[in-house]
Amino acid sequence: MTENSLIANISRVKGFDLNLLLIFEAIYVHKSVSKAAELLCVSPSAVSQSLTKLRSFFSDPLFIREGRGLVATTIAENLHNQLRAGFRQLLGSLDYFKDTTTRSKFVIHSTPYAAMRILPDVSAEVLKEGLNCEITHISADALLDTIEDALTYRKADIVFDTKPYYNFSTVVEPYLVERTVPICRVDHPRLNKTLTYEEMAFETSSFLNAGSENVKRAQTGIMEFLGERNFFFSSSSIIVNAAIVEKSDVVSFVPAWFAEKFASSFNIKVLDCHFSVEPVTMYMTYNKTSLKSPHFLELLEVLNKFKEL
Fold this sequence. Notes:
22% strand; 309 residues; Arc Repressor Mutant, subunit A; 5-stranded mixed beta sheet; single chain; alpha/beta; D-Maltodextrin-Binding Protein, domain 2
């Protein structure tokens, strides 16, 4: 069923109380108003009132008393046959989500760098502990403000981002703190081990194009020490910036973890810079309602093992 047809169907039945169909099925199965009321934990009069509404809606008595029980009319039989498969599927789906042994799927929303930084250790621990879950990563664009959208519309269960999203319905926790270091290619013709204000005046730079205020503060600190730089290239990807540095005489600032991890792979080196760049904090954000899920709590426990603050 397409979303348009689903919306059209919802519009057609919006004046109808769908709970009446559950009451109908209970009466059909038990052939009794009192037994249906007992099953649904409501009073027999409430079931009788609901049956009156159903009779009015379908313009049919639906059930006729015969002896000590109720017998379904032809319309009631047809209605039951139409509802049976749908109810079985619906109740099965509800049982699926209530069953704590069911494999749970969790969606994590982050930039590729954050995923590379956090998820390998977390995934290894999930497998080691044998948690009954599946993890899906959705890549975020560093320039787009998508945290609210991802959490509000349940597109993701957890968001990692350098920008915290504070809301009464979410939990925001600092997850790790990143130091920033300057890099250049190993055989840079002018830069050896250091990067000074005087040396930077003769160099071009690549720029991490990110919308986070947290990142921008770090970039402002770099500018205050090194002055206005000549930017040759910009990207929202740390990995792309590093690849540009490897093939040119460009200087870039990247997280220290990334530089240490991939220096040999990208043929880059870390430069000594005698000033402190403000560290960048990565935040973990999720909906408070997720804490009701035992599977989510298990995953959260694993994630908390790898916090770096």
